[in-house]
Write the structure tokens for this entry.
Amino acid sequence: MTDKTSADAAALLPHHRHRELAVLQDLLQDMAARDTLRGRIDAWLALTRWLAGPPLWSEVYASGHQVIGHPLQRLAVLADVLDNHADLAAGVRASLHATLMASDATALFGEGGMPGHRGFWAELGERIGSRLLPEPRDDHNLARVLDRQFAHPHELELLEHMPADLFARLAQALLPMDDAALAQQMRQAFFDGFRLLAARVQAEGLAAPVRRRSQPGPVRLSPFHALAQASEELLDALVGAGDAATGGEADPQQVAARWQSRAQRCRDELAWVHEHLDSSGISVDVVFGMGVIECCLLRMEIMVALLLAQHPAERLQQAQRLLALLVRYNMQDRSIRHLLRTNLNLLQRKVVDSAGQTGEHYIAQSPSEYRHIWLAAAGGGLLMVFTAAGKFLLHEWHLAPFFDALFNGLNYTLAFLVLQHLGLLLATKQPAMTAAALANVLRSHDSRHRLERVADTITRIVHSQIAAALGNIIAVVVGAIVFATAWTALAGHPLVDEQFAVDTLQSFNPLSSGTVFYAALTGVILFVASVLGGWIANWATYHRLPLAMAEHPLGERFGRARMERLGQFVDRHLSGWATCVALGLMLGFAPVLGAFLGLPVDVRHVTISSGKLALSALSLQGDGIPVTPLVLWGLAGVACMFVLNLTVSFGLSLYTAMRAFDLPRSDMLALARVLGQRLRRRPLDFIRPSSSMYDNF
């Protein structure tokens, strides 16, 4: 070795440490002795697994003190062993030479780590399938070999953080750089991979979903089409055969400058498409195609830099950068999580933006708006009385489970739709919307004033939410008393029999029933319904629903103007309708679906449950609502529903919004400190607005 020979190390080190040197020697000798492609690849993979192991020891180091006790130490030890054992190094180089000569590197440079051609959903299915049934081994494809070699992020970190001098030593010791036949083969594979990338950029950029959202113009002027032409011109110039293709200008540097200009035009076009996705609607296939183009452009830029490098050190630097990128892309190409995150992020932002615009209407920004929340919530509470009564009446019909769930879902849905079109409020629908509005505030203000601004917004959200919840509950209880009294007077009997009323009240007990879990599950359902509403709004924008309805053949009968107005009306309310329908049907079908799966699943919606509690209590013997332990435990259950419905829905929505906008978690910690100070100074502001609270809003 550099500072101590292997023999000295073996004499000085304990046996278990000396054993690692013996393992390395056996691995290198085994690799040099293999005489088949499969055997050589297996030996190489065994060597790389040893190199990715933990640090060795501090007494023996290799090329420098910077790797003592560092994961890179094994690589440095390998470099020293090969430098000091010429015969062993020659055998390893011969093995790698034979492996490379028998393999095809075209896919490595042009396809390895790139998503498939079939779009997002097909790619997702392919990755899920590969987890269940891995692809068969292909030793002739270097991309597949690289995929097997680098299986863990730790190995990528070793490659990315390897010092340039260590990378150069390993390249010189391992690669047969002076072999003309191998150099020609790798160069041809490199060029063919570059052509494949250029063709992929052109295919994705000219595909209908992206082309429809690009700037208008003929295909021949598209930057994606021009890049493919410039790529071929660059390759011709590099091999000295570009005079005809480039009009006599064969200087690679000038041709490369033209290529880089066209690559920048492709990036500008992608930025233009990205900026107009909000107005044209977001599709995962469009986002998927744009992501593929970005990956291809980045890889091609590094490949061009490698081709144009003048000095050996610069070439090795670009080679290391390209190899690290190939490994990273290979790892990402296997990751389901990465695919979902990168391709659904923009759609997630669109959904959050849609919810945030709605959520602004649920936050009181003036005293008059605060009073309006109370009135609208009271109206919503009164409407929920009829919804709760309808659920009791449906129970008396003793329908089959499916139809019972369907009619209950339609009962909820009808109530939510009426509530929306009358401008009434339901407290449980607010958190998912207000959380998105809060995220918009988090990302739209500078750091100096953002936290105070966000603290003000949260304060308004809290007292607006409390006003809506109390308005709902008070109105539903009062309305239930009036409704139950009128029903008993007109029908001559309570709305429900006493035993069913007792069972209902017992089901609300937070200790002896699943009320706590069911209330949290209802919060999840409320969140999911808001997401579906935002997704439908994006779908309508993507498919240009108002224009499509205006052009419908029915316009010839009813008039184009009417169809246009109908399209605009649907566009305004479609997101709300989708949220109402999704929420209603999920609330109705959740218990039946749980029973079908053998799971104890039910829902606990605080406003509807408050109405059911009041109607059940009034059905017990006695005048008015009897104050019994049964009723008090039911009230405790309603309190749990209030907390869990709102906090779970709000928490999930805020987390989703922060992920969509890539907001750092440190913001939440700083915000928690500011809110704690606000709570200590002005705790009543979280319950009701102070007289001066809206002055500077």
Q: What stands out?
A: The domain at 364-686 is CATH 1.20.1080.10 (Glycerol uptake facilitator protein). The chain is about 75% helix and 0% strand. Residues 576 and 645 are 19 Å apart (CA to CA). Residues 447-491 form the longest helix (45 residues).
